[in-house]
Amino acid sequence: MLVAAEAREFAGLLPFCSGVRGLAWPVHWAKYAESAGLRLWMVADGAGALHAGKAVELAAAECAPAVIVSMGFCGALDPALRIGDIFVANAIQAAGRRFDVCVPASGAPHATGVLASIDHVAQTAAEKKLLHESGAGAVEMEAGAVARFAFARGIRMFSIRSVSDTASQSFVTDFNQALLSDGHFGTIRILASALHNPVMAFPELIRLRRSCGIAAHTLGEFIVSCRF
Questions:
Q1: Are 33 and 17 contacting, i.e. CB atoms less than 8 angstroms apart?
Q2: pTM over 0.85
């Protein structure tokens, strides 16, 4: 089972899949597919621990997974990571707890290290620097909740991320204020934030959209190279 925050995080994987069909699960997005001899249940229900926890619980009740993969985009904390680089967690640090997770076998290039799973978007390079000093190499918002579920039930877990913003990048747009209660980023709120500094914010949004496209592509390519 593959768990992400947004459907677009699966965009790079779906071209490698066959037999893709929608699933009538009570979540925002869910599909079944097959790839490289594997049966894949894919689910996305919004950003953050609350929505990731709900998604993994509902999906696991439907498909009884032997393996859970938390996947999607991440912010780089390691300055060496670039847009589209793959980060494979060997541990997840979340809310004062550490989860040591499995690492897939793959010959494709990737970095490995501790993934910080926090309760908000890391908006500034200064915050990313502090998180990196704590020992983490990348940051996101969902893997901690998925890890808590998997560890409580003895299910093997992996976490694979693709970089959508670098360690030196600070956002002009306030994505935390734009995050809605349903776990999705509100377009109107994003535009309202961007209008406070349109000269910087609108090019930033264009770059981020492009970066997410690159990250989705490399993420899909990497996942199909893995043996779990």
A1: yes
A2: yes
What's the half-sphere exposure (Cβ side, CA atoms, 13 Å) at 108?
20
Summarize the confidence of residues 23-32 as an average pLDDT: 96
- pLDDT (0 to 100) of residue 36: 84
CA distance 181 to 186: 10
Nearest of 165, 115, 123, 163 to residue 142 by alpha carbon: 115
Average pLDDT (64-91) is 98
Domains of the chain: 2-170+216-225 (3.40.50.1580)
Which tokens sit at 113?
A: 């290290």
Average pLDDT value for residue range 10-23? 98
